[in-house]
Specification:
One of its GO terms (molecular function) is ATP hydrolysis activity. InterPro entries: AAA+_ATPase (IPR003593), ABC_transp_ATP-bind (IPR050319), ABC_transporter-like_ATP-bd (IPR003439), ABC_transporter-like_CS (IPR017871), Oligopep_ABC_C (IPR013563), P-loop_NTPase (IPR027417). This protein is of the alpha/beta class and 329 residues long. It has ten helices and eleven strands. It has helices spanning 56-63, 86-89, 103-106, 113-123, 129-142, 159-171, 189-206, 217-223, 241-246, 251-258, and strands at 8-19, 28-40, 45-49, 71-76, 79-80, 96-99, 177-181, 209-214, 226-231, 234-240, 314-315. Strands 6-7-8-3-9-10-11 form a seven-stranded mixed beta sheet, sandwiched between helices. It has a four-stranded antiparallel beta sheet with strand order 2-1-4-5. The two termini are 25 Å apart. It binds iron/sulfur cluster. Iron/sulfur cluster is lined by residues 251, 288, 290-291, 294, 296-297, 301, 306, 317-319. Residues 251, 288, 290-291, 294, 296-297, 301, 306, 317-319 line the site of iron/sulfur cluster.
């Protein structure tokens, strides 16, 4: 439920990576994130969607300060954390966690599950060894595993179970914010649903704010209060999840939604095919970044870059009023 003070405020965040390749005479930058702003409230979920390479994972990692932002500001509980050094971030790490797509990558394969879940307590000097063992057992039960899982190794578990271990570790220190970076994308649909429901139950119980990063808009819609659609490092549309899903304004969002498989195989649906790939973030097109693939593009789109509108359901498109269902408030 929305509250007055945002837990997280992101203002005009930019992440430009310098490409150090001797082939390039000049400095080249990858404009991975190029001016992204949003507020996130306690217990709320924002879903970030877009094709691979649109910058959504970089937003998640930059706001956690796993990367130093190029520009913009990050406020956590009203405090500007943009320029905090790694040492100053240590105490904040308790409050902000990340769950990655592949738990095998993020969980140390040589450690037992118990040691993996215990590690955050050790890093922050919380509890006695006996208390930590007890907390590990409780956390395993909380995520739907048996306490005796603590003595086993990650490779002994299925993908869904490993993701439960990752979640147990992420919630160990009772964080206020979790970035779920494609956390369910690699799982089978039925397992995906179980993990999503587990995350939603824990969110409700612990009032955790979630940043849910995924390329599957149907999953994002299910979990999110707000959806932001990204293209080449920018938000092209952001609004309440139901508004974005039911009445998309941007041609890119419209195309993403048209690609979602229908449960009813006989239901008539016109799929909008996007031609070509997402352009390189090192060399974004002039004008509207989506102009090279947009079925509505006209002359002005190739010259002028649209900015996000200022209403509640924001969109960045010169011709937004041409789309059916758009009132262009
Ligand atoms: Fe398409 Fe033009 Fe809108 Fe960009 S500004 S999304 S090219 S119609």
């Amino acid at each position: 439920m929305t509250q007055a003070t945002p837990l997280l405020q992101i203002k005009d965040l930019k992440q430009h990576f310098l490409v150090s390749n001797k082939l390039f005479q000049d400095k080249k930058y990858v404009y991975a994130v190029d001016g992204v702003s949003f507020d996130l409230y306690p217990g709320q979920t924002i879903g970030l969607v877009g094709e691979s390479g649109c910058g959504k994972s970089t937003v998640g990692r930059t706001l956690l300060k796993l990367y130093e932002p190029t520009a913009g500001r990050i406020f956590f509980e009203g405090r500007d954390i943009t320029n905090l050094k790694a040492k100053e971030m240590i105490s904040l790490r308790k409050e902000m966690q990340i769950i990655l797509q592949d738990p095998l990558e993020s969980l140390n394969q040589r450690h037992t599950v118990g040691d993996i879940i215990k590690e955050p307590f050790q890093i922050h000097g919380i509890g006695t060894p006996k208390e930590r063992d007890q907390w590990v057992s409780e956390l395993l039960v909380k995520v739907g595993l048996r306490p005796d899982a603590a003595s086993r190794f990650p490779h002994e578990f299925s993908g869904g179970q490993r993701q439960r271990i990752g979640i147990a570790r992420a919630i160990a220190l009772k964080p206020k914010l979790i970035v779920c970076d494609e956390s369910v994308s690699a799982l089978d649909v039925s397992v995906q649903a179980q993990i999503v429901n587990l995350l939603l139950d824990l969110q409700k119980e612990m009032n955790i704010a979630l940043i849910f990063i995924a390329h599957d808009l149907s999953v994002v819609r299910h979990v999110s209060d707000v959806i932001a659609v990204m293209y080449l490092g920018k938000f092209v549309e952001i609004g309440k999840a139901e508004d974005v899903y039911n009445t998309p304004k941007h041609p890119y969002t419209e195309a993403l939604i048209s690609a979602i498989p229908q449960p009813d195989p006989w239901a008539k649906k016109d799929r909008i095919i996007l031609n070509g790939d997402i352009p390189s973030p090192m060399n974004p097109p002039k004008g509207c970044a989506f102009s090279t693939r947009c079925r509505l593009a006209e002359k002005g789109c190739f010259e002028h870059s649209p900015t996000l509108s200022c209403d509640e359901h924001k969109v960045a498109c010169h011709l937004v009023q041409l789309l059916p269902g758009n009132n262009n408030e």
